[in-house]
Amino acid sequence: MKIIKKILKWTGILLLSLLLILAITVSMRQNLKYEAPYPEVHASKDSAVIARGEYIFYGPGHCLYCHASKKDYPPGTDLNDMLPSGGYEFDLSIAKIYTPNITNDHETGIGKLSDGAIARTLRYGIGSDGRALFDFMPFHNMADNDLEAIVSYLRTIPPLKNKVPENYFNVGGMIVKAFLIKPVGPDENPQKKVVPGVNVEYGKYLANSVANCRGCHTNRDMMTGAFIGPDYAGGLRLDAPGNPNAYCVSRNLTPDKETGHIYNWSEQQFINRFRAGKLIQESEMPWEAFKQFSEDDLKAIFMYLQTVKPIKNETGPSLVVTSKE
To answer: Which of 70, 150, 292, 314 is the most exposed place for a label (fewest CB within 10 A)?
Structure first.
């Protein structure tokens, strides 16, 4: 009996010691700093460059969709009438993440940051203080000239003082942040200059490096953001904002003849769907922004999607209601 008590006692001490070591380690790793080069990107005053940045910002890149808190504006306010003062909340199971203020305010925004620091955040997912950011933005492989365009447009946005809430992490979130969240960075050498055109190559660039089509239409680990499914095969479950009793499932966009959602679509049907905007109110797809895609850019994306590997994956309905209120 004494031996059993001793075993239990030392087992308890060992477990408590391990938990203490884990807690200390997690705490020490909450604000790890990372290094990455600063892209040679500088804001331009060229009107064409700024216009390109504005198009990406409001359209394909849907930057304002996340960097404006819609609760600060009356319902139905056009995205183009909002300022990117941050505060949009990503309510995750492990954390509440708030988007930063990216107006040119020097205290609460990006006014005091260098052009290179902004470009580094977009390309490498590293904040101005060196911390790794959650991988929400798809711009790691964006071409230098488009990074320049975005930074150039950002510099034209008037300052708006808005201190957003601090990110909150529960215990699980702190563990994920300590061990799993690291800078992503480009997985290929980013182009110095991308030239728009109605072709597969440009469609791939838009879909993967600007609009983040792959980010939602490929299954992912929602705790770390890692891709865990075949490209564009859909099946990613997304919470429905404002409706805790429902969720959305991303469509299979591969050209599989049985389960590919757009397999039988014509180019014009594809374009018309974007022009129609949001049809499912619970959808997280940034339809208000994507309605602003140019016709040529939509044609390029459609051409690219015809070339991805067909994957048989029946994703079911886009909206799933789990219970009645």
So the answer is: 314
Non-local CB neighbours of 47 within 8 Å, separated by 6+ positions: none
Q: Which two tokens stand for residue 228?
A: 């865990």
Taken as a whole, the chain contains a residue count of: 325
Whether 236 and 217 have beta carbons less than 8 Å apart is answered as yes
- DSSP secondary structure letters along 115-161: HHHHHHHHHH-B-TTSPBPPS---GGG--HHHHHHHHHHHTTSPP--
Tell me what percent of the residues of the chain surpass a pLDDT of 90: 75
What secondary structure does DSSP assign to 48-115, as a single string?
HHHHHHHHHHHTTT-HHHHHB-GGGS-TT--GGG----B--EEE-SSEEEEPPP-SS-TTTSSTTS-H
Show me where the domains of the chain are located: 33-41+65-142+155-190, 195-325
The per-residue pLDDT of the chain, averaged, comes to 92
CB 209 within 8 A of CB 304: no
Type of residue at 246:
A
DSSP string for 225-241: --B-S-TT-B--EEE-T
